[in-house]
Specification:
This protein is of the alpha/beta class. Helix content is 43%, strand content 17%. It has an 8-stranded parallel barrel with strand order 1-2-3-4-5-6-7-8, surrounded by 7 helices. It comes from Adineta steineri.
């Protein structure tokens, strides 16, 4: 598989991010042909109006503990502003309570909203792997697939850990073939990026996209 910028969601989610930093992110994304820029919802319209790039934003971020109706409202606003990819955070407490039905229903509603808003709209589901046990991760692979989401994603990057090789292998093994895997959190060097791509990740969420491209030339094959 040839590596291109299409693997990378070039990410800026820091709470103190400035417009100057956002402009730099977007210019880098255009230059390196990254899959998306992944930004906070408040910046979506600004970027959509100014840059010829695909825009991803986050919903229920970073804790996932807002109500389903709040997530739906937030998602609809982002779609109205022009977002093309949505990364939602599940309600992790509901998983710990064993209330898998709640989580599946929430994902289903978000997936329906995203997919009905136009062609090529994508929903990614952040499950925060560092807070889950193996059984919960395996169950969520099934839930994300059954609920109609497009990706299962490891991490917000704001919790106790990020993407690991073991988690990428697990998510790829237990997810349906039509569900892709996004690795996020702590991806800062080319060697690790190569390993997780080989393990099955098809998208990398990282703020180190430019450094990774320098470390992983597009002519490399994995």
């Amino acid at each position: 598989m040839s590596l291109t910028g299409s693997f990378i969601d070039h990410t800026l989610l820091k709470p103190d991010a400035t417009i100057k930093q956002l402009d730099q992110l977007c210019n880098e994304a255009v230059e390196h042909k990254f899959a998306t820029v992944c930004i906070q919802p408040c910046h979506v319209k600004y970027v959509v109006d100014k840059y010829p790039i695909r825009v991803c934003t986050v919903i229920g971020f970073p804790l996932g503990a807002t109500t389903t109706q709040t997530k739906l409202f937030e998602c609809q606003q982002a779609l109205n502003d022009g977002a093309q990819e949505i990364d939602m955070v599940i309600n992790i407490g509901k998983i710990k309570d064993g209330n898998f039905e709640y989580v599946q229903n929430e994902i289903e509603q978000l997936a329906k909203l995203v997919h009905s808003s136009g062609e090529n709209k994508i929903l990614k589901v952040i499950i925060e792997t560092c807070l889950l046990n193996e059984t919960e991760k395996q169950k969520l692979c099934q839930i994300v697939g059954d609920a109609g989401a497009d990706f299962i994603k490891t991490s917000t990057g704001f919790s106790t850990g990020g993407a690991t090789m073991d988690d990428i292998k697990l998510l790829r093994q237990y997810s349906p073939k039509n569900v892709q895997v996004k690795a996020s959190g702590g991806i800062r060097d080319g060697a690790f990026a190569r390993e997780i791509i080989q393990a099955g990740a098809t998208r990398l969420g990282t703020s180190s996209g430019v450094a990774l491209m320098k470390d992983m030339p597009a002519t490399s094959n994995y």
